[in-house]
Fold this sequence. Notes:
By secondary structure, this protein is an all-beta fold.
Amino acid sequence: MFYSTRIADVATKFTVGTEMQIGQTSAQNYGNQMGKASSLNFDDDIRIKSALYFGSAELDLTENLLLTVGTSLNMLRYDFDRIVTNITSDTTGFYEKKFTPQLMPRIGLVNKIAPNMSLHGSISFGFSPPTVEEVRTNEGSLNLGLAAEKGTSFEVGARGSFLKNRIKYDATFFYFRLNDAIVQQQTPRGTNIFINAGSANQAGFELSTSILLLDNPVQIINQIELNNALTINRFYFDEYETNSGDFSGNKLTGVAPNISTTTFTVKAKGGLYSSAGHYFTDEIPLNDANSFYSNKSHVVKLTAGFKRQLLERLTINVSFSLDNLLNEEYSLGYDINAFGARYYQPAPARNWFGGLKLIYDF
């Protein structure tokens, strides 16, 4: 619900709402006999109940100063009806994972200090409960003691443009204090489990830039644009001690300290276009002890295509791409804290693919 009014001559907008969801699913786990399903290990009926109540207010304190305050109340529970189990220490029956209702306030301020520049800052509190897959792991066990992640976030930044909007930027410094961080572990069987890892400090910087090098619709090549997104992460465990050791002060597992994505796009008359992308990922700590790291990767992708409107509501887009041009050995995803150092899931070597897309605007 939305409501607009004036309070002491200050233009104010109120937004309130609610969202409720109920989901139910049936989940079974089977043994693996030479790649084929064998005996039934677990059989669960799972019900998810969630409710969200939220409200916010936007106050135009001055012509260039905007204040936003808001809060939300989050409620969540998982119900597990265990019908079948083959673990001797486990029993069938009803299990409940209910999270304490969480109130999450937020306050933000935006100040337009020039026609093409604004500063912004915010403080917010976060609540991130574990997913069903983290509470009921892929081996079927129920981790009912797993707590939700909670944290406090501080952000300050600037966004704007210059040279008649040809150069745009958005820069943000952030710090996030995370408690009860959820970290993935792997058992000798190769199944994933999740534990709370104490607290973590996450500081960083994000910068996105867009440079319009050419914008002239009457030329054969009518637009050239360069974009970059840079992320610098300095994430560390604060207090983190398990049966495997004390990892306090180590780098946060599974997070790259530096990530950069650069794209160069050229558009021409007749709907022709091409683009080149460079994706850099710094080395990632793959275990809590920081004794194994991934290699840095530079992945280059080239794309050429044709996009044109055929009819009033019908558009065609034909494209061809060459991926991993440098034939890098890298992974699209890592198994964090994998048993036996089985961290890597190799990505495809140099490869190509094409596509045809028809878009009809109803």
